[in-house]
Amino acid sequence: MWSNLHLDVLANIFSFLSPDSLARAKSVCSHWHTCAKLYHLHSVSQHRRPAWFLALPTRNRGLCCYVHNPVADKWHVLSLDFLPDPVRPVSSIGSFLLLRPINSTILQLVLCNPFTRQFRYLPLLNISRTNPAVGIVMEGPAQHGPFPNFRIYVAGGMSDEPGGGATYESMVEMYDSRHDTWQIIGSMPVEFAVRLTVWTPNESVCTGGMLYWITSARAYSVMGFNIESNTWRELSVPMADRLEFATLVSRNQKVTLIGGTCGGDACVWELSEGGDDDIWCLIEKVPIEMGMRLSGGKASWGGTKCAAGNGAICLYREVGLGMIIWREDEDKRKWEWVWVGGCCFTGGKQVQNVPVRGVLLHPSLACACILNK
């Protein structure tokens, strides 16, 4: 595996190394020496580097994903044939993917490093449930590193009743990576459990001690969970009944909403400081020409998805269409819109244009102990 890696993939992995470790790596073989020489590598902190985009087909059960390297602007196909089940992404956690198998309605989560071909099923939840909301909370100073500590919160969904049938699940569970266990931490209002079931997208935002999810059934609203006090609140969404798509992301540690209307603009709003006043401030609009390009000239935002992380927000639909990226330019101290071409050919072979679901993460080849528990 090591001798066959593309130079740009190897270079990105080398950028994690300290100067002395990089010097030793350059002496391993001619391939590694060439890589380090061509790319003029130097160690940089992970949170300052652009994240890679990984896209998994949503309608194809083939075990592969498409990977875009933002530094070299290249696409690769990455095999996931080491996984026993077809999966779809839930979130990125450091250099890992959090996945869920799609051949079962009962939620079970899988932690995976697609570059080292390592994976591990997390323990089963205390309460079996279908289609709940999943939220990620990163912890400690290592949250930007390859081996972060994290917690996973699961809320809502449907569970079986003792006498038969199903009911909306009001218990909230939390997984702690340091203890590798799930625990029930409290309950939520049943009406909130209903809103966080079935159609809720997996994207979550954590900031200021709050976890936020957006519902995916119109009219949109946002559910907020105070982690410390174990309390819930519902927030309104601007243009809630008109948006064709809406998603939550975190930008500069603020809750940010992106949504678009049919035949209209896609806008970016930020929640006011503290968030208690439910005030959304319009801060930006997606360039019209890029929106038309993403939709294939249809002036529709239906089917648009979003991935965000590490100073970048990515709007996408199908792997071959290309992506709209709003990213931070630290040198210019501003955010700018760029277009990234889609994955049409890799290795000289044409790639089928299919709908995908993507995440942003930083690749690493370090073997993680958390995947060997």
TrEMBL record:
Q: Origin, by domain of life?
A: Eukaryota
* Gene3D superfamilies according to UniProt: 1.20.1280.50, Kelch-type beta propeller
InterPro entries, A to Z = F-box-like_dom_sf, F-box_dom, Kelch-typ_b-propeller, Kelch_1, SCF_F-box_component
For the F-box domain, which residue ranges apply? 2-38
Name this protein carries in UniProt: F-box domain-containing protein
